[in-house]
Amino acid sequence: MLNYQVGDRITLKKGHPCGENLWEILRTGVDIKLKCTGCQHTIWLSRLDFEKRVRKIQEGDKLVSIVHHKKED
């Protein structure tokens, strides 16, 4: 399990209907609150559902697959 923090930008398996696929994490815990960076729409996902859907995380200017993301200790 990766450690996600508020302010991280991620992509999900499917994009948002507005056409954007980049999301910003607003809140973490049992549920995750995400904001679409395109239209500013917010959604809540359970942590289990979020872990299934997340595909990439932004490191600097690059989007890196969660498989290759460095886990913070």
Keywords:
Bacterial protein of uncharacterized function (DUF951); mainly beta; six-stranded antiparallel sheet; DUF951; 1 helix; single chain; globular; about 70 residues
Overall 3D shape: globular
Helical/strand content category:
mainly beta
- Measured distance between first and last alpha carbons: 12 Å
H/E order of the elements?
EEEEHEE
Q: Give, in spatial order, the strands making up the sheet with the most strands.
A: 4-3-2-1-5-6
Strand content: 35-45%
On the 0-100 scale, what is the average pLDDT? 87
Q: Uncertain regions: pLDDT < 50 for 5+ in a row?
A: none
The helical percent reads under 10%
Q: Count of helical segments?
A: 1
What's the domain count? 1
How many beta-strand elements?
6
Radius of gyration: 11 Å
Largest sheet data: 6 strands, antiparallel
Organism: Urinicoccus massiliensis
InterPro entries: DUF951
Protein name: Bacterial protein of uncharacterized function (DUF951)
Topology:
Layout: E1 9-12, E2 22-27, E3 31-36, E4 42-46, H1 47-53, E5 54-59, E6 62-65
Antiparallel strand pairs: 1-2, 1-5, 2-3, 3-4, 5-6
